[in-house]
């Protein structure tokens, strides 16, 4: 998944980014409202983590702009404001959830997972397709009685492909979803991860089909 982190504290932003990257997510960092608007205008993010007190304005203005523009990207607000009225105002403005600073990284990760599950219409941490079961928490695939481990980016790629079976995903789209601006990978990186996933899916009815010159889609045999 690709996240936008809007936070002016460089140390906190680095810590949050590194923690999320360990889970296989790509993270773009904006330290101001101006940068945030620039990023959000060009990328379709899976989740936005939003600080409220920013050097060039209030993060709630960014949230209001997103919702008034009918952009429904999930937003988790990271705020030092802990009064009930402040939290109610943020939720009423369109925030999907919030964490109060200082927060535990494990809590932030859990809230991200919960919001993304709701976004996908699921309340579980598992995905079932054909004869496989993917556990998003343990990063494993279960095929019959066998469990196989996934690396974080393999898990995120599989999650994307399984989000809409039979949908064709271009290589460019997958690069955009899996990598941040700072990584600048080639589309060959997607071929590498697809090759690894195919090995992990061997023996199952789940197949990653290549559409030559375009991209990939997941289907069941």
Please give a quick description of this structure.
Helix content is 41%, strand content 26%. The chain has eight helices and 14 strands. It has helices spanning 10-22, 33-42, 59-68, 84-92, 105-119, 152-163, 171-178, 188-201; strands at residues 2-6, 26-30, 47-51, 53-54, 57-58, 75-79, 97-100, 126-129, 132-135, 140-143, 146-149, 169-170, 206-211, 215-220.
**Sheet of most strands:** 5 strands, parallel
| Secondary-structure element string | EHEHEEEHEHEHEEEEHEHHEE
Low-pLDDT residue intervals, each spanning 5 or more residues: none
What general outline do the C-alpha atoms trace? globular
Output the CATH class name of the largest domain.
Alpha Beta
Amino-to-carboxy terminus distance: 27 Å
Rounded mean pLDDT score: 91
Question: How much β-strand is present in the residues?
Answer: 25-35%
Write the layout of secondary structure elements.
Blueprint: E1 2-6, H1 10-22, E2 26-30, H2 33-42, E3 47-51, E4 53-54, E5 57-58, H3 59-68, E6 75-79, H4 84-92, E7 97-100, H5 105-119, E8 126-129, E9 132-135, E10 140-143, E11 146-149, H6 152-163, E12 169-170, H7 171-178, H8 188-201, E13 206-211, E14 215-220
Parallel strand pairs: 1-2, 1-3, 3-6, 6-7
Antiparallel strand pairs: 4-5, 8-9, 9-10, 10-11, 12-14, 13-14
Describe the structure.
The chain has 221 residues and is an alpha/beta fold. The chain has two domains: 2-119, 3-Layer(aba) Sandwich (Rossmann fold), CATH 3.40.50.2300; 126-220, Orthogonal Bundle (Arc Repressor Mutant, subunit A). It is built from eight helices and 14 strands. A five-stranded parallel β-sheet has the order 2-1-3-6-7, with helices on both faces. Strands 8-9-10-11 form a four-stranded antiparallel β-sheet, with helices on one face. Strand 9 (132-135) and strand 10 form a beta hairpin. Helix 6 crosses helix 8. The longest helix is centred in the middle third of the chain and has 15 residues, at 105-119. The protein is globular, with a radius of gyration of 18 Å. The two termini are 27 Å apart. The relative contact order is 0.12.
């Amino acid at each position: 998944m690709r996240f936008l982190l809007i936070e002016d504290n460089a140390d906190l932003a680095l810590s949050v980014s590194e923690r999320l990257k360990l889970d296989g997510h790509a993270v773009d960092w904006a330290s101001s409202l101006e940068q945030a608007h620039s990023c959000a205008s060009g990328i379709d993010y899976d989740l936005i983590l939003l600080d409220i007190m920013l050097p060039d304005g209030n993060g709630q203005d960014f949230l209001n702009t997103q919702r008034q523009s009918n952009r429904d990207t999930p937003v988790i607000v990271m705020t030092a404001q802990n009064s009930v009225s402040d939290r109610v105002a943020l939720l009423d403005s369109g925030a999907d959830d919030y964490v109060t600073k200082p927060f535990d990284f494990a809590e932030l990760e859990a809230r991200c997972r919960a919001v993304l599950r709701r976004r996908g219409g699921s309340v579980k941490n598992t995905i079932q397709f054909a004869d496989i079961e993917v556990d998003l928490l343990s990063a494993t695939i279960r095929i019959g009685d066998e469990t196989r481990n996934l690396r974080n980016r393999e898990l995120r790629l599989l999650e994307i492909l399984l989000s809409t079976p039979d949908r064709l995903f271009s290589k460019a789209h997958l690069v955009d979803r899996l990598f941040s601006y700072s990584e600048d990978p080639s589309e060959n990186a997607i071929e590498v991860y697809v090759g690894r996933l195919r090995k992990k899916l061997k023996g199952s009815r789940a197949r990653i089909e290549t559409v030559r010159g375009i991209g990939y889609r997941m289907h069941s045999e």
